[in-house]
């Protein structure tokens, strides 16, 4: 005996099958729209590349924009301590320039000591300096140098009087105090009416206005003149010397007295006595340049 379903059941079966067929067709359409394995691989590779590039750009941005690491050190100068913030990757020459702005000591006249003399090819970090390190600064300001050559009010009055009377330098009272003592025993031989280049050794055996020994060393590669006395050596940049005057010493023309103008006025001249005559023009040439003689 067959069981025949009702017409409504047949309709539902048809609708269900139609629904399933429709669903399959839709899935098929969706699957056909999906990218192939290759296209997926390309997309992931592109995404990874973009992430890598973004990370690299971020790294560069941090390197350029991020503040450099700094630390605080103590600089000891003239028995005083100064707290200074300095970048760890700063080169020693740049650190000297920083200290020049803070303390007024020209960078070319500085010596920095930390477990020995700091070299210009070092940086703060490579020299072993850490937070709280104590760095010794040895050097002199131009004012210190001028103080050595400073003159009293009486000396200034005498110089003004002599200038008015056009009295030769070697006859002025301020210079006679040194010249009357005679030629130093260790003076270098002087030759008048002769011009020679600078010798390969420092000029020595000369005196300053106090009668102390003076030696001149020309560091032309550094554009510096090293002025040495028994007490210390001053490393003067050539550009800090405003002028040079000289005159033969009467009765000993093979020698000159010479004044190095270290400040804006004639009163700031550093006087040197018994300079060998044959080297005078070479000294002026080294300090001021040939163009000064026209």
UniProtKB/TrEMBL annotation:
It comes from the Eukaryota. Residues 1-45 are annotated as: Disordered. GO terms for molecular function: cadherin binding; RNA binding. Pfam families: PH_UBFD1_C (PF25343), ubiquitin (PF00240). Residues 69-138 form the Ubiquitin-like domain. Residues 14-36 have a biased composition (Basic and acidic residues). PROSITE patterns: UBIQUITIN_2 (PS50053). This is Ubiquitin domain-containing protein UBFD1-like.
């Amino acid at each position: 005996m067959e069981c025949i379903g009702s017409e409504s059941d047949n309709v539902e079966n048809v609708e269900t099958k139609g629904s399933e067929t429709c669903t399959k067709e839709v899935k098929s359409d969706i699957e056909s729209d999906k990218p192939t394995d290759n296209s997926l691989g390309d997309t992931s590779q592109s995404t990874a590349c973009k992430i890598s590039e973004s990370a690299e750009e971020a790294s560069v941005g941090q390197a350029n924009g991020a503040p450099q690491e700094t630390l605080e050190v103590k600089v000891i100068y003239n028995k005083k301590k100064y707290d200074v913030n300095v970048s760890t990757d700063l080169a020693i020459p740049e650190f000297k320039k920083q200290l020049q702005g803070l303390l007024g000591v020209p960078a070319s006249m500085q010596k920095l000591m930390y477990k020995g003399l700091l070299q210009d090819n070092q940086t703060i970090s490579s020299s072993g300096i850490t937070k709280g390190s104590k760095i010794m600064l040895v050097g002199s300001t131009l004012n210190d140098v001028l103080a050595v050559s400073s003159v009293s009010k009486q000396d200034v009055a005498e110089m003004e009087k002599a200038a008015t009377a056009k009295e030769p330098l070697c006859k002025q009272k301020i210079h006679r105090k040194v010249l009357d003592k005679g030629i130093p025993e260790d003076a270098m031989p002087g030759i008048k009416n002769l011009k020679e280049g600078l010798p390969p050794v420092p000029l020595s055996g000369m005196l300053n206005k106090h009668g102390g020994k003076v030696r001149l060393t020309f560091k032309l590669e550094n554009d510096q003149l090293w002025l040495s006395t028994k007490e210390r050596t001053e490393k003067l940049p050539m550009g800090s010397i405003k002028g040079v005057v000289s005159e033969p010493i009467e009765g000993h023309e093979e020698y000159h007295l010479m004044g190095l103008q270290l400040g804006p006025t004639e009163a700031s001249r550093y006087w040197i006595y018994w300079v060998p005559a044959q080297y005078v023009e070479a000294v002026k040439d080294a300090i001021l340049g040939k163009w000064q003689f026209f």
